[in-house]
Automatic annotation (TrEMBL):
SMART domains found in the cross-reference section: AAA, SRP54, SRP54_N
InterPro entries: AAA+_ATPase (IPR003593), P-loop_NTPase (IPR027417), Signal_recog_particl_SRP54_hlx (IPR013822), SR_rcpt_FtsY (IPR004390), SRP/SRP_N (IPR036225), SRP54_GTPase_dom (IPR000897), SRP54_N_sf (IPR042101)
Subunit structure: Part of the signal recognition particle protein translocation system, which is composed of SRP and FtsY.
Broad enzyme group: hydrolase
Gene it is expressed from: ftsY
Lineage, broadest ranks: Bacteria, Thermotogati, Thermotogota, Thermotogae, Thermotogales
Annotated protein name in UniProt: Signal recognition particle receptor FtsY
Protein backbone atom coordinates (compact mmCIF):
# COMPACT_ATOMS: atom_id res chain seq x y z
CA UNK A 1 0.00 0.00 0.00
CA UNK A 2 1.36 3.41 -0.96
CA UNK A 3 2.06 6.13 1.54
CA UNK A 4 -1.11 8.10 0.88
CA UNK A 5 -3.37 5.05 0.87
CA UNK A 6 -1.90 3.95 4.19
CA UNK A 7 -2.56 7.39 5.63
CA UNK A 8 -6.06 7.34 4.21
CA UNK A 9 -6.63 3.90 5.70
CA UNK A 10 -5.27 5.14 9.04
CA UNK A 11 -7.68 8.08 9.07
CA UNK A 12 -10.63 6.02 7.89
CA UNK A 13 -12.53 6.11 11.18
CA UNK A 14 -12.19 9.88 11.54
CA UNK A 15 -13.16 10.43 7.94
CA UNK A 16 -16.21 8.20 8.05
CA UNK A 17 -17.48 9.37 11.42
CA UNK A 18 -17.08 13.11 10.96
CA UNK A 19 -15.07 14.67 8.18
CA UNK A 20 -16.94 13.18 5.23
CA UNK A 21 -20.17 14.46 6.78
CA UNK A 22 -18.69 17.91 7.17
CA UNK A 23 -17.51 17.80 3.57
CA UNK A 24 -20.92 16.64 2.33
CA UNK A 25 -22.71 19.42 4.19
CA UNK A 26 -20.38 22.10 2.89
CA UNK A 27 -20.60 20.81 -0.66
CA UNK A 28 -24.38 20.60 -0.78
CA UNK A 29 -25.83 23.22 1.54
CA UNK A 30 -25.86 26.94 2.14
CA UNK A 31 -23.67 28.05 5.02
CA UNK A 32 -26.51 29.39 7.17
CA UNK A 33 -27.09 29.31 10.89
CA UNK A 34 -28.32 25.73 10.90
CA UNK A 35 -25.41 24.50 8.79
CA UNK A 36 -23.01 26.36 11.03
CA UNK A 37 -24.43 24.68 14.14
CA UNK A 38 -24.23 21.23 12.59
CA UNK A 39 -20.65 21.71 11.52
CA UNK A 40 -19.76 23.06 14.92
CA UNK A 41 -21.15 19.94 16.55
CA UNK A 42 -19.28 17.62 14.17
CA UNK A 43 -15.99 19.45 14.69
CA UNK A 44 -16.33 19.28 18.46
CA UNK A 45 -17.23 15.57 18.31
CA UNK A 46 -14.16 14.98 16.12
CA UNK A 47 -12.04 16.46 18.94
CA UNK A 48 -10.97 19.52 17.00
CA UNK A 49 -11.38 21.49 20.25
CA UNK A 50 -13.32 24.66 20.99
CA UNK A 51 -10.60 27.10 20.03
CA UNK A 52 -9.89 25.67 16.59
CA UNK A 53 -13.59 25.03 15.94
CA UNK A 54 -14.51 28.67 16.57
CA UNK A 55 -11.62 29.80 14.39
CA UNK A 56 -12.67 27.50 11.53
CA UNK A 57 -16.30 28.65 11.71
CA UNK A 58 -15.34 32.32 11.72
CA UNK A 59 -13.17 31.81 8.68
CA UNK A 60 -15.89 29.83 6.87
CA UNK A 61 -18.35 32.65 7.46
CA UNK A 62 -16.12 35.00 5.47
CA UNK A 63 -16.18 32.71 2.43
CA UNK A 64 -18.57 32.60 -0.47
CA UNK A 65 -20.85 29.58 0.20
CA UNK A 66 -19.78 27.82 -3.01
CA UNK A 67 -16.15 28.03 -1.88
CA UNK A 68 -16.75 26.61 1.59
CA UNK A 69 -15.46 23.07 1.04
CA UNK A 70 -12.25 24.18 -0.64
CA UNK A 71 -11.87 26.83 2.03
CA UNK A 72 -12.17 24.26 4.81
CA UNK A 73 -9.20 22.36 3.38
CA UNK A 74 -7.17 25.54 3.17
CA UNK A 75 -8.04 26.56 6.73
CA UNK A 76 -7.11 23.15 8.14
CA UNK A 77 -3.84 23.08 6.21
CA UNK A 78 -3.05 26.57 7.48
CA UNK A 79 -3.65 25.54 11.11
CA UNK A 80 -1.59 22.35 10.74
CA UNK A 81 1.32 23.86 8.79
CA UNK A 82 4.20 24.42 11.13
CA UNK A 83 7.89 23.98 10.67
CA UNK A 84 8.14 20.25 11.29
CA UNK A 85 11.66 19.59 10.07
CA UNK A 86 13.83 17.61 12.45
CA UNK A 87 16.47 19.63 14.25
CA UNK A 88 19.42 17.49 13.08
CA UNK A 89 22.76 18.87 14.29
CA UNK A 90 25.77 19.25 11.98
CA UNK A 91 27.82 17.08 14.27
CA UNK A 92 26.64 13.62 15.26
CA UNK A 93 25.14 12.17 17.34
CA UNK A 94 21.60 13.43 16.86
CA UNK A 95 19.95 12.87 20.26
CA UNK A 96 16.20 12.35 20.54
CA UNK A 97 14.35 12.03 23.83
CA UNK A 98 10.95 10.37 23.71
CA UNK A 99 8.55 11.52 26.42
CA UNK A 100 4.87 11.05 27.20
CA UNK A 101 2.40 9.39 29.55
CA UNK A 102 2.36 5.64 29.96
CA UNK A 103 0.83 3.68 27.14
CA UNK A 104 0.99 6.54 24.66
CA UNK A 105 3.34 4.61 22.36
CA UNK A 106 6.84 5.83 23.29
CA UNK A 107 8.64 2.49 23.11
CA UNK A 108 6.91 1.47 19.89
CA UNK A 109 7.72 4.84 18.35
CA UNK A 110 11.39 4.47 19.39
CA UNK A 111 11.48 1.23 17.41
CA UNK A 112 9.72 2.69 14.38
CA UNK A 113 11.99 5.75 14.38
CA UNK A 114 15.10 3.60 14.73
CA UNK A 115 13.94 1.61 11.72
CA UNK A 116 13.30 4.79 9.72
CA UNK A 117 16.84 6.02 10.39
CA UNK A 118 18.33 2.60 9.69
CA UNK A 119 16.64 2.63 6.29
CA UNK A 120 18.38 5.95 5.66
CA UNK A 121 21.63 4.10 6.31
CA UNK A 122 22.22 5.63 9.74
CA UNK A 123 23.70 3.94 12.79
CA UNK A 124 21.23 4.07 15.65
CA UNK A 125 21.51 3.59 19.42
CA UNK A 126 18.43 2.89 21.52
CA UNK A 127 18.76 3.79 25.21
CA UNK A 128 16.42 2.09 27.69
CA UNK A 129 15.90 4.99 30.12
CA UNK A 130 12.58 3.59 31.25
CA UNK A 131 14.09 1.56 34.06
CA UNK A 132 10.86 1.48 36.03
CA UNK A 133 9.81 -1.95 34.77
CA UNK A 134 11.94 -4.86 33.50
CA UNK A 135 9.32 -5.50 30.81
CA UNK A 136 9.91 -2.03 29.40
CA UNK A 137 13.60 -2.80 28.93
CA UNK A 138 12.82 -6.14 27.24
CA UNK A 139 10.27 -4.49 24.97
CA UNK A 140 12.80 -1.93 23.73
CA UNK A 141 15.37 -4.67 23.24
CA UNK A 142 13.03 -6.45 20.84
CA UNK A 143 12.58 -3.21 18.87
CA UNK A 144 16.36 -2.77 18.75
CA UNK A 145 16.71 -6.26 17.26
CA UNK A 146 13.94 -5.66 14.74
CA UNK A 147 15.31 -2.34 13.58
CA UNK A 148 18.99 -3.21 13.70
CA UNK A 149 19.87 -0.64 16.37
CA UNK A 150 22.44 -0.97 19.15
CA UNK A 151 20.77 -1.49 22.50
CA UNK A 152 22.05 0.16 25.67
CA UNK A 153 20.40 -0.74 28.99
CA UNK A 154 21.04 -1.17 32.69
CA UNK A 155 19.09 -3.22 35.21
CA UNK A 156 15.54 -2.53 36.27
CA UNK A 157 15.48 0.26 38.84
CA UNK A 158 18.78 1.72 37.65
CA UNK A 159 19.28 5.45 37.28
CA UNK A 160 17.70 6.65 34.02
CA UNK A 161 20.29 9.40 33.68
CA UNK A 162 23.12 6.88 33.82
CA UNK A 163 21.57 4.88 30.97
CA UNK A 164 21.19 8.06 28.89
CA UNK A 165 24.82 8.93 29.58
CA UNK A 166 26.01 5.50 28.47
CA UNK A 167 23.88 5.54 25.33
CA UNK A 168 25.18 8.94 24.20
CA UNK A 169 28.72 8.12 25.24
CA UNK A 170 28.59 4.91 23.22
CA UNK A 171 27.35 6.84 20.17
CA UNK A 172 30.14 9.38 20.50
CA UNK A 173 32.89 6.81 20.89
CA UNK A 174 31.63 4.62 18.03
CA UNK A 175 30.71 7.49 15.72
CA UNK A 176 27.03 6.54 15.57
CA UNK A 177 24.50 8.90 14.02
CA UNK A 178 21.39 8.84 16.14
CA UNK A 179 20.55 8.15 19.80
CA UNK A 180 16.93 7.59 20.75
CA UNK A 181 16.12 7.56 24.46
CA UNK A 182 13.00 5.77 25.65
CA UNK A 183 11.81 7.28 28.93
CA UNK A 184 9.31 6.24 31.59
CA UNK A 185 5.70 7.35 31.39
CA UNK A 186 4.77 6.55 34.91
CA UNK A 187 6.70 6.85 38.15
CA UNK A 188 5.63 7.17 41.76
CA UNK A 189 4.16 10.56 41.07
CA UNK A 190 4.14 13.33 38.50
CA UNK A 191 6.85 15.36 40.19
CA UNK A 192 9.18 12.38 40.33
CA UNK A 193 8.57 11.72 36.62
CA UNK A 194 9.24 15.30 35.59
CA UNK A 195 12.35 15.49 37.81
CA UNK A 196 13.67 12.34 36.19
CA UNK A 197 13.09 13.66 32.67
CA UNK A 198 14.91 16.88 33.47
CA UNK A 199 17.75 14.90 34.95
CA UNK A 200 18.07 12.67 31.88
CA UNK A 201 18.32 15.79 29.72
CA UNK A 202 20.88 17.45 32.01
CA UNK A 203 23.08 14.36 32.02
CA UNK A 204 23.02 14.17 28.22
CA UNK A 205 24.04 17.82 28.02
CA UNK A 206 27.27 17.03 29.84
CA UNK A 207 28.31 15.12 26.73
CA UNK A 208 26.51 17.06 24.01
CA UNK A 209 25.59 20.58 25.17
CA UNK A 210 22.85 21.11 22.55
CA UNK A 211 21.20 17.74 23.25
CA UNK A 212 18.56 16.51 23.27
CA UNK A 213 18.10 18.07 19.83
CA UNK A 214 14.56 16.77 19.72
CA UNK A 215 12.21 16.14 22.63
CA UNK A 216 9.31 14.32 21.06
CA UNK A 217 6.12 14.17 23.08
CA UNK A 218 4.22 11.03 22.19
CA UNK A 219 0.45 11.48 22.35
CA UNK A 220 -2.19 8.82 21.93
CA UNK A 221 -4.89 10.20 19.62
CA UNK A 222 -7.47 7.98 21.31
CA UNK A 223 -7.17 9.98 24.54
CA UNK A 224 -8.29 13.13 22.74
CA UNK A 225 -8.78 16.24 24.84
CA UNK A 226 -7.41 14.47 27.93
CA UNK A 227 -4.15 13.86 26.14
CA UNK A 228 -4.04 17.52 25.24
CA UNK A 229 -4.20 18.48 28.91
CA UNK A 230 -1.38 16.06 29.74
CA UNK A 231 0.68 17.50 26.92
CA UNK A 232 0.36 20.95 28.43
CA UNK A 233 1.89 19.62 31.67
CA UNK A 234 4.89 18.12 29.84
CA UNK A 235 5.36 21.31 27.87
CA UNK A 236 5.74 23.27 31.10
CA UNK A 237 8.54 21.06 32.35
CA UNK A 238 10.60 19.99 29.34
CA UNK A 239 11.14 21.89 26.12
CA UNK A 240 9.07 19.77 23.79
CA UNK A 241 10.18 20.26 20.18
CA UNK A 242 7.63 18.10 18.44
CA UNK A 243 4.63 15.84 18.79
CA UNK A 244 4.26 12.25 17.66
CA UNK A 245 0.54 11.53 17.38
CA UNK A 246 0.00 7.78 17.65
CA UNK A 247 -2.90 5.37 17.16
CA UNK A 248 -4.68 7.50 14.57
CA UNK A 249 -5.74 4.19 13.05
CA UNK A 250 -7.66 3.31 16.19
CA UNK A 251 -9.82 6.37 16.61
CA UNK A 252 -12.42 8.53 14.91
CA UNK A 253 -10.96 11.49 16.78
CA UNK A 254 -8.20 12.38 14.36
CA UNK A 255 -9.39 15.97 14.69
CA UNK A 256 -7.20 16.12 17.80
CA UNK A 257 -4.30 16.92 15.46
CA UNK A 258 -5.99 20.22 14.69
CA UNK A 259 -6.55 20.99 18.38
CA UNK A 260 -2.90 20.19 19.10
CA UNK A 261 -1.65 22.52 16.39
CA UNK A 262 -3.95 25.33 17.48
CA UNK A 263 -3.65 25.04 21.26
CA UNK A 264 -0.14 23.69 21.89
CA UNK A 265 1.67 25.55 19.17
CA UNK A 266 4.10 22.62 18.83
CA UNK A 267 4.55 21.02 15.40
CA UNK A 268 3.37 17.48 14.85
CA UNK A 269 6.45 15.76 13.43
CA UNK A 270 5.26 12.18 13.03
CA UNK A 271 2.05 10.21 13.09
CA UNK A 272 1.51 6.59 14.02
CA UNK A 273 -1.02 4.69 11.95
CA UNK A 274 -0.53 1.15 13.21
CA UNK A 275 1.55 -1.17 15.38
CA UNK A 276 3.96 -2.29 12.67
CA UNK A 277 7.52 -1.11 12.24
CA UNK A 278 6.67 0.86 9.10
CA UNK A 279 3.58 2.49 10.55
CA UNK A 280 5.20 5.79 11.42
CA UNK A 281 4.96 8.63 8.91
CA UNK A 282 6.48 12.09 8.86
CA UNK A 283 3.62 14.52 9.25
CA UNK A 284 2.59 16.52 6.22
CA UNK A 285 -0.28 18.97 6.72
CA UNK A 286 -1.51 18.83 3.14
CA UNK A 287 -1.51 15.03 2.90
CA UNK A 288 -3.18 14.77 6.28
CA UNK A 289 -6.02 17.09 5.33
CA UNK A 290 -6.44 15.48 1.90
CA UNK A 291 -6.68 12.07 3.59
CA UNK A 292 -9.09 13.36 6.22
CA UNK A 293 -11.46 14.83 3.62
CA UNK A 294 -10.88 12.35 0.80
CA UNK A 295 -13.85 10.80 -0.94
CA UNK A 296 -14.16 7.09 -0.29
CA UNK A 297 -13.86 5.91 -3.89
CA UNK A 298 -10.66 3.91 -3.30
CA UNK A 299 -9.72 2.91 -6.83
CA UNK A 300 -7.51 0.00 -5.74
CA UNK A 301 -10.40 -2.03 -4.41
CA UNK A 302 -12.56 -1.53 -7.50
CA UNK A 303 -12.37 -4.55 -9.82
CA UNK A 304 -10.89 -3.63 -13.18
CA UNK A 305 -13.82 -4.83 -15.27
CA UNK A 306 -16.52 -2.75 -13.59
N1 LIG B 1 -2.97 0.86 16.60
C1 LIG B 1 -1.84 1.44 17.02
N2 LIG B 1 -1.27 1.01 18.16
C2 LIG B 1 -0.14 1.62 18.57
C3 LIG B 1 0.46 2.70 17.84
N3 LIG B 1 1.56 3.09 18.53
C4 LIG B 1 1.64 2.29 19.62
N4 LIG B 1 0.62 1.40 19.66
C5 LIG B 1 0.33 0.36 20.68
O1 LIG B 1 0.10 0.99 21.94
C6 LIG B 1 0.50 0.14 23.02
C7 LIG B 1 1.43 0.92 23.97
O2 LIG B 1 2.61 1.23 23.28
P1 LIG B 1 4.02 1.43 24.01
O3 LIG B 1 4.98 1.76 22.95
O4 LIG B 1 4.31 0.27 24.89
O5 LIG B 1 3.69 2.70 24.90
P2 LIG B 1 4.64 3.43 25.97
O6 LIG B 1 4.35 4.87 25.90
O7 LIG B 1 6.03 3.00 25.78
O8 LIG B 1 4.06 2.84 27.34
P3 LIG B 1 4.81 2.78 28.79
O9 LIG B 1 6.16 2.19 28.57
O10 LIG B 1 3.89 1.91 29.59
O11 LIG B 1 4.85 4.16 29.31
C8 LIG B 1 1.18 -1.04 22.36
O12 LIG B 1 0.26 -2.12 22.34
C9 LIG B 1 1.48 -0.58 20.94
O13 LIG B 1 1.50 -1.62 20.00
C10 LIG B 1 -0.20 3.13 16.63
O14 LIG B 1 0.21 4.08 15.94
N5 LIG B 1 -1.34 2.46 16.28
MG1 LIG C 1 7.41 2.12 27.05
Amino acid sequence: MGFFDKLKEGLKKSREAFFNKIGQILKTRRFDRETRDEIEELLILADVGVEATEYILERLEEMKPEDAFGALKEILIEILSKDNKLNIPDEKPFVISMVGVNGSGKTTTCGKLAYMFRREGKQVVLGACDTFRAAAIDQLKIWAERSGATFIAHMEGADAGAVAYDAVNHAISKGKDVVILDTAGRLHNKKHLMDELQKVHRVVQKLVPAAPHEVLLVMDAVTGQNGLQQAKIFKEVVSVTGIVLTKLDGTAKGGIAIAIAKELGIPIKFIGVGEGIEDLKPFDAKDFVEALLAGDEISESTPANV
